[in-house]
Design a protein that fits this description.
By secondary structure, this protein is mainly alpha-helical. The protein has one domain (about 5-145). The chain is built from five helices and no strands. Bound molecules: fe (ii) ion (FE2) (2 copies). One fe (ii) ion binds near residues 8, 12, 43, 47 and 108.
Length: about 140
Amino acid sequence: MPQILELIRDDHDLIRDLFDELESNPETRDVRCITLRRELPGHVYAEEATLYARLGDMVPEEIQRSLDEHTEIRETLARFEMIPLRDDAWMPALVDLRERVEAHFASEEREVFTRAEHHLSPAELFRLGEMFEEEKQKAAQFAAG
Ligand SMILES: [Fe+2]
Ligand SMILES: [Fe+2]
């Protein structure tokens, strides 16, 4: 199984593609919204339960900043979900959500990944990858529940 940083990057790419689709293709919007509502909260939850929990004592300031960004993302997603698809406010809300999420992904891939590679062994990154998959499955079951 890939190590956790590869799994996180794969999730980021999938969510970036989802935003592309949501912006450019009106016909698939309702289905992609359902996917986004599943993938985005599951992703941030699984990060917090694994990588952030592991790095929290080693680089507390960076992890706190990332946790604050997760809170902001959850709040922005909750506001976005309140807006009907055909409302004029929908596209601006999507663009706002996308900007916040993509800015977070970029700083995560730059800063958190660098810290993780510095502080954690390959074996540990590998083990965290297995935990990350498990936590995402738990989150999906909870969401479906
Ligand atoms: Fe994150
Ligand atoms: Fe992430």
